[in-house]
Q: What sequence folds into this?
């Protein structure tokens, strides 16, 4: 099971379409991070519209992926979380997902571009100092 | 259509041996909830709880078993899930139930999260045996 990763300029777009086993989740994490490094992507948008369950393992993997992606220079936004999934995660415990989430793909792209912009701004101000 | 509705008091057992069994178990739980006409939020709560408990079995005990039991009556939907293993057991249950406590570098959100999602939650554990019994209870046709 290989999840396709699409390239849109310096943004990567990926959509999880099936229920993944733990091994496939880890494989996905590796693939995505390699892809970011390969093209020096500045952003990664993960669409989880089709995910019916996001448990604490998946939540942690998403958080870890986002942290590692950031180290590689890419911002991460997750889009398309099913309302029932969002509700369940909130009920389980506050702050399980430490990544920006948006309702749909379009909004996700807007937010991702804004984050990339902000990051660029803060990097250039850091250098000015 | 009627054949999709599970029999009253029907029970299904899923052996938990590898991570595909986690998917199997949570699918089965969701199917039952859907067949009993619980809403998508309840289907997701139940499937997520089953995912957490069966993953704990794999992670900490290596293998175990998940039983999904439909004990509904005419006026109440009642789904019970029993997850058992013969692993090392949980030495300090109070600690294990604490938010953020994990011996495996996890979020430590599984057990306390499941307790919040479910209407009933019972955990018994001793060296060589751990059993989690959870249940979801809803009045018939009044679920969201
Ligand atoms: N079936 C089990 N057998 C032995 N120990 C268990 C079992 N289930 C849970 N534990 C212990 O209880 C702790 C807390 O479990 P919990 O599911 O809440 O968090 P976690 O599995 O560590 O992380 P997360 O579920 O957030 O990925 C575990 O770290 C483990 O030490
Ligand atoms: Mg756990």
A:
């Amino acid at each position: 099971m290989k999840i396709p990763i699409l390239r849109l300029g310096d943004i990567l777009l990926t959509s999880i379409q099936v229920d993944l086993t733990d091994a496939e989740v880890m494989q996905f994490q590796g693939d995505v991070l390699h892809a970011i490094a390969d093209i020096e992507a500045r952003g990664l948008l993960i669409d989880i519209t089709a995910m019916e369950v996001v448990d604490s393992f998946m939540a942690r993997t998403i958080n870890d992926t986002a942290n590692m992606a950031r180290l590689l220079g890419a911002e991460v936004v997750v889009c398309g979380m099913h309302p029932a999934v969002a509700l369940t995660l909130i009920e389980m415990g506050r702050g399980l997902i430490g990544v920006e989430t948006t309702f749909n793909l379009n909004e996700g792209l807007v937010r991702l571009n804004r984050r990339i912009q902000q990051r660029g701004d803060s990097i250039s101000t850091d250098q000015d100092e | 259509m009627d054949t999709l509705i599970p029999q009253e008091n029907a029970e299904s057992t899923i052996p938990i041996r590898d991570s595909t069994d986690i998917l199997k178990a949570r699918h089965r739980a969701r199917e039952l909830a859907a067949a009993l006409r619980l809403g998508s939020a309840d289907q997701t709560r139940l499937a997520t709880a089953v995912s957490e408990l069966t993953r704990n079995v794999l992670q900490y005990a290596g293998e175990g078993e998940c039983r999904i039991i439909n004990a509904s009556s005419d006026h109440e939907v009642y789904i019970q899930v029993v997850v058992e293993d013969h692993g090392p057991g949980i030495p300090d249950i109070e600690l294990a139930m604490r938010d953020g406590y994990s011996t495996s570098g996890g979020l430590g959100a599984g057990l306390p999260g499941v307790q919040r999602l479910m209407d009933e939650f019972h955990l018994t554990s001793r060296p060589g045996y751990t059993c989690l019994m959870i249940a979801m209870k809803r009045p018939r046709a009044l679920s969201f």
